[in-house]
Design a protein that fits this description.
The chain has 15 helices and 18 strands. By secondary structure, it is α/β, with parallel strands linked by helices. The protein has two domains: about 230 residues, 3-Layer(aba) Sandwich (Rossmann fold); about 160 residues, 3-Layer(aba) Sandwich (Molybdenum Cofactor Biosythetic Enzyme, Chain A), CATH 3.40.980. The chain has a 15-stranded mixed sheet, with helices on both faces. The radius of gyration is 22 Å and the shape is globular. The chain binds adenosine-5'-diphosphate.
Length: about 425
């Protein structure tokens, strides 16, 4: 059966964020890690999100990878394509939002799309084409100092205009507030002016839903996960999607473990909480540096402790401790050593029967997913905002929750496992 929506995301956690939004609105969704090499990943799903890592790579590479994802999505018969980027419009004058959008428009033989990063729930709003982060303009927010994509201009018409040779227009709030019909009329006017990209203002969820309705006829929609809120309803109205049913938690039995390589404040609180009642093993980066076989030791330790309930394996440490380690062995080297160790520990745990696994940390999650050779995740119910349970697609499925650093309540780990019992 053909899919309804095919999405291309420019990073991994952004892909999960989008997939989670679509699931909450009743679309059965699979997240793919990179462009798949076979066709059968999209069987019996409404939406597929292809997670790429193209946000900061050279623009020609980002275009090539995005087009490969597009071709795969087109083979699955998608009725609409979504290009997902960050709600702070993370990009540079070289790209990659403009070049990738242009290539997707050409690939879809379409002449107009929208660009709407607004996500009011998370404080991202667009007004008169200017992106706000909370009460501040994007260019006054912390994003101005981002190491890879410093955002020093809040005017998205200008920002996107520097990334594309085609013209960029604006659908202002006063039109958006009047509803979907007015927005569609504005699209027609922009088309007549030969505009290919429409920045669309949105300051609340009602705006996003109106925009969602208005874009039903566009082959390509681009933006943050907020604007995807309104898309499932279009398919429902067209009789292509059933009523929203709450997704089931993964039905996977086996041992439980948490791997935490995140040093973010919230994760450290979660680790402290779990340590009070469950066995914990602290990974010492300096022992890894000294060549000690920490991975084998952790595996033996886990075998002794895991029978009765989840175990916690963590390197999470406070800023002083992290600084001390980084001064001794270098920041990147410390990160690499721990990520590699976490990947190998995950492999060992799975070999020893772990089937319910939580990973804390964005980079750590990437390393674990790679080490386990995971190609696709079926997105399940949300545990806490932005973090769903997922089930890996394949012969021996795992229940897997990938949590970025500052997400989740303090009792996240126990809460997550309780949902599976
Ligand atoms: P978050 O989502 O909180 O940013 P990440 O996993 O993305 O977490 O990033 C944490 C980084 O810190 C990883 O590269 C990890 O390997 C590294 N790290 C984890 N523990 C330590 C530690 N004790 N000392 C130094 N670096 C660490």
């Amino acid at each position: 059966m053909a899919i309804l929506l095919g999405a291309i995301a420019d990073d991994f956690t952004g892909a999960t964020d989008l997939a989670n939004t679509l699931v909450k609105k009743g679309m059965n969704t699979v997240q793919l890690i990179g462009v798949p090499d076979s066709e059968n990943w999209a069987d019996d799903v409404d939406a597929v999100v292809v997670a790429l890592k193209t946000r900061t790579i050279p623009a020609p590479d980002a275009v090539a990878e995005s087009l490969a994802a597009l071709r795969w999505i087109q083979r699955q018969g998608a009725r609409q394509v979504f290009f997902k980027y960050c709600s702070t419009f993370d990009s540079t004058d070289a790209g990659n939002i403009g070049p990738v959008t242009d290539a997707l428009l050409t690939g879809l033989d379409e002449d107009l799309t929208i660009a709407c990063p607004a996500f009011p729930t998370n404080g991202r709003t667009v007004f008169k084409g200017h992106l706000f982060v909370g009460d501040e303009l994007l260019s006054d927010s912390g994003m101005r100092n981002h190491p890879l994509t410093p955002m020093t201009d809040s005017n998205l018409v200008r920002v996107l205009g520097r990334q594309t040779t085609s013209s960029v227009g604006l659908v202002p709030r006063e039109i958006v507030a009047k509803g979907a019909e007015s927005i569609r009329t504005a699209f027609s006017a922009l088309r007549e002016q030969n505009v290919h990209h429409a920045i669309v203002d949105a300051v609340d969820d009602a705006d996003l839903l109106a925009i969602g309705t208005a874009v039903a006829g566009l082959k390509l929609v681009t933006g943050g996960s907020g604007v995807a809120l309104g898309l499932p309803e279009n398919f429902r109205r067209a009789g292509l999607l059933g009523e929203a049913v709450a997704p089931e938690p993964p039905r996977v039995n086996g041992l439980h473990a948490v791997l935490s390589g995140s040093c973010s404040i919230r994760t450290r609180e979660q680790v402290e909480m779990m340590k009070k009642t469950r066995p914990g093993y602290l990974i010492d980066p300096l022992a890894l540096h000294d060549g000690k076989d920490v991975v084998a030791h952790v595996r033996e330790w886990a075998k002794d402790h895991i029978g009765t309930g989840p175990v916690l394996i963590y390197s999470s440490a406070d800023a002083d401790e992290v600084g001390r380690v980084q001064n001794q062995i270098g920041r990147d080297h410390a990160g690499d050593l721990i990520e590699q160790a976490m990947g190998r520990i995950a492999q060992g745990l799975v070999e020893d029967g772990v089937r319910r696994l939580i990973v804390a940390g964005g980079e750590t999650s990437g390393a674990v997913v790679k080490a386990l050779g995971i190609k696709a995740l079926h997105i399940g119910p949300e545990i806490d905002p932005g973090v769903p349970w997922t089930e890996t697609v394949g012969d021996e499925p795992l229940a897997l929750a990938l949590k970025s650093g500052n997400f989740g309540g303090v009792d996240f780990f126990e809460k997550a496992f309780k949902m599976l019992s």
